[in-house]
Amino acid sequence: MQPFHYKALPIDVHFGVGKSAEAKDILWQQGYHKVLIITTPGQKEAGHKLAKQLQDICAGVYPHAVMHVPVAVADKAVAFVKDHDIDCCLALGGGSTIGLAKAIALKTQLPIVAIPTTYAGSEMTTIYGLTEDNLKTTGRDSHVLPKVVIYDPELNLTLPAQISACSGMNGMAHAVEALYAQDKNPIVSLMAIESIKALKSALPVIVKDLTNISARQKATYGAWLAGVCLGSVGMAIHHKICHTLGGAFNLPHAQAHAITLAYSVHYNRNADSEAMDRLAEALGVSSREEVGIAIYRLNESLGIELALKDIGLPTEGPAQVARIVCDSPYYNPREYHYDELKALLQKAYKGLPPV
């Protein structure tokens, strides 16, 4: 075994059905007494329901989180928490909500508590992202890592099939890229394989029966592991493509990840043979040549939209994304080739199989 370096994440994680009902006690034990609940506009009602549970330690609900965390939105939220003497931000929701809480923490160093309601996994990372002038930039900072994460599969029961599927595939993308990360290690790779298997097993059940709590638990478990992977090692070409799709074209985050993953792994199928052989085994196929089509078929079975054009990418998008990715690349186990990447993105644009 080769030498490796593994960073463990210092987060207090609570996991279990009904666990969100204990939020007040958990927050109180952490010493938080003026908690601001952050949601998207669509989750405002859920935020007020949680506010009633928190009672006197809740300072209100801030329902203004949106995709990709625009800098202007973040600046308004920072001003709000400073004006109201908030001592903790509680992010209730998915990547948009947790992303806004992280932007606040980056500027104010306020602690974050996260109660995820999707399977994206960003709650387990020091990664933040901000968008300005159609450019999404990401970074890492220890201040944006939540102090507490509360996982309650019951909160996912109302998550529609399409969002459940796309969010779960978004989570799977983190685990997949952890397998061939520049700083990969055996511990994170074990978590990644377990995550991929859990999500692959749970998501088809969920889209057929949204109230299957056992499948919701398994998907939440897979998402937690995927988040640990994302928070522990670097990502590669897939995340660069998706950050470009989000920043430059404002495409919905989870859908972009779900659609693009098949093409990213197909591009890398022979770049790290050990990682791709393990991925093939986790996906239940016989060869790393099949990993891209396996993910494409999984998306198809989950009812996920298969074409980037159907979620807002314009005709010129594939060429533009390929150029941006090649001009400012993330680490990847193989070199970036513009023509090949553009051709794959054109297939993704049309929803054609990656092979």
Automatic annotation (TrEMBL):
Gene3D superfamilies the record matches: 3.40.50.1970, Dehydroquinate synthase-like - alpha domain (1.20.1090.10)
Q: Which residues form the Fe-containing alcohol dehydrogenase-like C-terminal domain?
A: 165-349
**Entry-linked CDD domains:** MAR
Q: Which residues form a coiled coil?
A: none
The Alcohol dehydrogenase iron-type/glycerol dehydrogenase GldA domain sits at 11-153
Q: Keywords assigned by UniProt?
A: NAD, Oxidoreductase
Entry annotated with the keyword GTP-binding: no
The answer to keyword Cell wall biogenesis/degradation applying to this record is no
Please give the InterPro entries that the UniProt record associates with this protein: ADH_Fe/GldA, ADH_Fe_C, Alcohol_dehydrogenase_Fe, MAR
What the record says about family reads: Belongs to the iron-containing alcohol dehydrogenase family.
Record protein name field: Maleylacetate reductase
